[in-house]
């Protein structure tokens, strides 16, 4: 089913002086204005277009690419404040409206905000900055550890950064595991670190293998700077390992296990040694 607010490949069915009409199924024939069509477009050609409503609420097509479609989150700049709300730049000739009732806080011209695009009860593409009413916190999802996901940074908490996972659920990046600058509204690739018993999602910016590689490198760096020896091993207290290498005992054991298999280190009764 073809709907307003999405991109489709549509067939040209008629040409006029002011553009071409496209077959949009249940929506009927929709105009693609001449200013947005390639010069060589002809009847029976197929063209990729985005569908929205014009200023008179009529369906219209464009070859312009919006920064977000209906059902997407985006970080958009306010271009204008009006008596009905704020208009945001989303890449099309017609800006998208955030009504006052859908503003989490008053919006200022020139500032950017994280918003979600949806269709109102008149099929007009509208945005809301009340993200919490759209993003789910429930446990009804199918995410699993080490799954690669797309993240949008939402906000910061005492524990770290809340991020929208694959446009659907909240997840948490712990601040002591983030080694790069993150900004509100930023899109970034990440991984599911773990799904807790209550269904809440812990995130990481690195895959499990990348983390293990980092820990292995940290151990090798320490050994290289201390005559090839570290006075900790798999039976050492967790506190001692953390104080020496800055990682948990579980992380340490996985790392030295890999290094031992690669014959990079030996494990002795009083520590580990670089081969």
Automatic annotation (TrEMBL):
SMART domains: S1. It holds the Pfam family WHD_CvfB. The lineage of its organism: Bacteria, Pseudomonadati, Planctomycetota, Planctomycetia, Pirellulales. Residues 3-64, 69-130, 144-206 form the S1 motif domain. InterPro entries: CvfB_fam (IPR014464), CvfB_S1_st (IPR039566), CvfB_WH (IPR040764), NA-bd_OB-fold (IPR012340), S1_domain (IPR003029), WH-like_DNA-bd_sf (IPR036388). Belongs to the CvfB family. This is S1 motif domain-containing protein. Transmembrane segments: none annotated. It comes from Neorhodopirellula lusitana.
């Amino acid at each position: 089913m073809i709907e307003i607010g999405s991109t489709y490949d549509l067939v040209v069915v008629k040409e006029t002086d002011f553009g071409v009409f496209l077959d949009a199924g249940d929506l009927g024939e929709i105009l693609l204005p001449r200013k947005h069509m390639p010069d060589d477009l002809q009847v029976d050609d197929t063209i990729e277009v985005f569908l929205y409503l014009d200023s008179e609420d009529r369906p219209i097509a464009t070859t312009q690419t919006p920064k977000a479609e209906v059902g997407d989150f985006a970080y958009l700049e306010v271009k204008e404040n009006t008596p009905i709300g704020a208009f945001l730049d989303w890449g099309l000739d017609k800006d998208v409206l955030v009504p006052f009732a859908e503003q989490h806080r008053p919006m200022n011209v020139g500032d950017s905000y994280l918003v979600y695009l949806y269709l109102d009860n008149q099929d007009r593409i509208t945005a809301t900055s009340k993200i919490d009413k759209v993003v789910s916190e429930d446990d009804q999802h199918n995410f699993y550890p080490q799954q690669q996901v797309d993240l949008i940074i939402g906000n910061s908490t005492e524990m770290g950064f809340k991020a929208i996972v694959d446009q659907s659920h909240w997840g948490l990046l712990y601040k002591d595991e983030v080694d790069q600058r993150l900004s509100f509204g930023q899109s970034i690739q990440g991984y599911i670190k773990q799904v807790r018993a209550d269904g809440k999602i812990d995130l990481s910016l690195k895959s499990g293998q990348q983390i293990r590689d980092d820990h292995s490198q940290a151990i090798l760096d320490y050994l290289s700077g201390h005559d090839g020896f570290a006075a900790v091993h798999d039976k050492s207290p967790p506190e001692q390992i953390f104080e020496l290498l800055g990682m948990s005992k579980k992380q340490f054991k996985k790392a030295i296990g890999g290094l031992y298999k690669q014959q990079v280190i030996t494990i002795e009764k009083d520590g580990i040694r670089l081969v």
